[in-house]
Design a protein that fits this description.
With 362 residues, the chain is α+β, with helices and mostly antiparallel strands. It contains 4 helices and 22 strands.
Length: 362
């Protein structure tokens, strides 16, 4: 009986001890993930959509609006040349001089004929005033005088063709003659392109044809001289290329000489094609980890994740367009990126968001 009571007391004591430790363990609150480590406060950005202007990039080249070809009007030998390809010339500058003996002979003959006809006309005019000659004689003499005068003017004009002057200010882009060459009427001698009046030519896919209008402004970028120039659409050729399925667009460049532009320079035109919805984030939030482009995001409880993204173009220098990988309303971390890692916990501080950007742009 005594042994039975001892066992009974031992069992009761064991139950009491187990109950004590069980109650003591339940009284402690379970730790949530992230509460056992310090949290870093970092700047963050709340993602969202923004309507931005769409652009179409199209490469092309500059060309002169004023291409002047100079040809010979008479036959003669080149006895003076003052030009070379690439030389800049001014309007009225003497470029070439021709020696044309035949033209000189015709001029002197015409001049002699004119002097003789004038003397005859002056004599007949005095006699006609005295009624000493008939009206028909006077009319015939006047006609011969006018013909001689016209012949002299024609010969004088051909004589002026011996000296060839520049009709515009520009650059010599082609020279087809040299000293001593014999040239004939209609032969192309020089080509001059104006530097002050340039246009930009580019081919645009026909799908954007209706979105472009004459008179609209266009941004032109010339990377070779690190210059961005504003142009204006002057014409859209209403004929599509059957091979490239594109139309030719011509853009005027006002004040091209101020930017050191010249004919034939390569550039890229940016056409405005309307507005589109885009998801943007700060540019400094994008980073690369193990060759993958992505951003750090934070969940509702502050846990950090690395999210791969596909980025597009830059918006207003400080933001980048995200094409894939993010949704509106997500928390993207923009600060302390070198101090955090996936699995750590942070306290995001929203110093900027899409609503503030949209409001500032209105």
């Amino acid at each position: 009986m005594k042994k039975f009571k001892s066992i009974k007391y031992a069992a009761a004591f064991l139950i009491f001890v187990l109950s004590f430790f069980s109650l003591n363990g339940c009284s402690k609150k379970a730790n949530l993930p992230g509460e056992t480590q310090p949290r870093l406060s970092v700047n963050a950005f709340r993602t969202g959509y923004k309507y931005i202007s769409g652009y179409l990039k199209s490469p092309g080249n500059t060309d002169s609006l004023n291409n002047t070809g100079i040809s010979a009007h008479i036959m003669g030998y080149v006895i003076y040349e003052n030009v070379r390809e690439g030389q800049i010339v001014s309007k009225g500058m003497l470029l070439l001089r021709l020696n044309a003996p035949e033209i000189k002979s015709k001029y002197y003959a015409a001049k002699a004929g004119y002097i003789n006809a004038k003397k005859t006309y002056d004599r007949i005019r005095r006699l006609y005033a005295e009624n000493s000659v008939s009206k028909q004689t006077y009319d015939n003499t006047l006609m011969q005088y006018n013909m001689a005068k016209a012949g002299l003017n024609e010969a004088s004009s051909y004589l002026n063709y011996k000296n060839i002057y520049s009709p515009i200010s520009g650059v010599i882009t082609k020279k087809n003659v040299s000293m001593g060459d014999l040239v004939g009427p209609g032969q192309m001698l020089l080509i001059i392109q104006s530097l002050n009046k340039l246009e930009f030519k580019t081919s645009v896919n026909v799908r954007y044809y209706k979105k472009l209008k004459a008179g609209e402004s266009v941004n032109l970028n010339f990377s070779s001289i690190n210059a961005a120039v504003d142009g204006k659409i002057i014409s859209i050729v209403r004929s599509a290329n059957p091979y490239s399925h594109s139309v030719l667009v011509k853009i005027e460049i006002p004040g091209a000489n101020k930017f050191e532009l010249m004919p034939g320079m390569y550039g890229v035109a940016r056409f405005r094609t309307g507005r589109r919805k885009a998801l943007i984030i700060p540019k400094n939030a994008v980073l690369r980890r193990l060759g993958i482009t992505g951003v750090y995001t934070a969940s509702d409880n502050g846990e950090v994740f690395f999210q791969p993204v596909k980025k597009g173009g830059v918006y207003k220098k400080n933001f980048v367009i995200i094409l894939n990988g993010l949704n509106p309303g997500m928390t993207v971390l923009t600060g302390g990126l070198d101090k955090i890692a996936p699995g750590s916990f942070v306290n995001p501080k929203f110093d900027n968001n899409i609503d503030k950007i949209n409001k500032a742009d209105k």
